[in-house]
Amino acid sequence: MEIFDNITKTVKDDLTVTIEKGSRLSIAAACFSIYAYQVLRKQFDHIDELRFIFTSPAFVTEKAPKEKREFYIPRLNRERSLYGSEFEVKLRNELTQKAIARECADWIRKKVTFKSNTTPENMGGFLNIESGSEQITYMPLDGFTTVDIGCERGNNSYNMVTKFPAPHSQEFIRLFESVWNDRTKLQDVTAEVIENITAAYNENPAEFIYFVALYNIFNEFLEDISEDVLPNEATGFKDSKIWNMLYDFQKDAALAIINKLEKYNGCILADSVGLGKTFTALAVIKYYENRNKSVLVLCPKKLSDNWNTYKDNYINNPIASDRLNYDVLYHTDLSRNHGRSNGLDLDRLNWSNYDLIVIDESHNFRNGGEVYGDDARENRYLRLLNKVIRPGVKTRVLMLSATPVNNRFVDLRNQLALAYEGKPSLINEKLNTAKPIDEIFRNAQRAFNVWSDLEPGKRTTATLLKMLDFDFFEVLDSVTIARSRKHIEKYYNMDDVGKFPVRLKPVSLRPSLTDLSHAINYNQIYDELMNLNLSVYIPTDFVFASRREKYVDPDVNINRAGREQGIRRLMSINLLKRLESSVYSFRLTLQRIKKLIDDTIAEIDIFEAGGNADVALTELGEDAEFDYDDQNTDFFTTGRKVKIDLNDMDYVTWRSTLQQDSDILELLILMIADITPEHDTKLQTLLTLISDKIDTPINKDNKKALVFSAFLDTTEYLYQNVSGFIKAKYGLDTAMITGTVDGKTTIPKFKATFNNVLTCFSPVSKDKDLLMPGKTDRIDILIATDCISEGQNLQDCDYLVNYDIHWNPVRIIQRFGRIDRIGSRNAQIQLVNFWPDLTLDDYINLKSRVETRMRISVMTSTGDDDLINAEEKGDLEYRKAQLKRLQEEVVDIEDMSSGISIMDLGLNEFRLDLLDYIKNNGDLDKTPFGLHAVVPAKDDTPPGVIFVLKNINGGVNIDNRNRLHPFYMVYIADDGEVVCDHLSPKEILDKMRYLCKGKTFPLTDLCRDFNQETDDGRNMRRLSNLLSDAINSIIAVKEESDIDSLFRSGGTSALNTNITGLDDFELICFLVVRGA
Question: Using an 8 Å Cβ cutoff, are 265 and 419 in contact?
Answer without folding.
Answer: yes
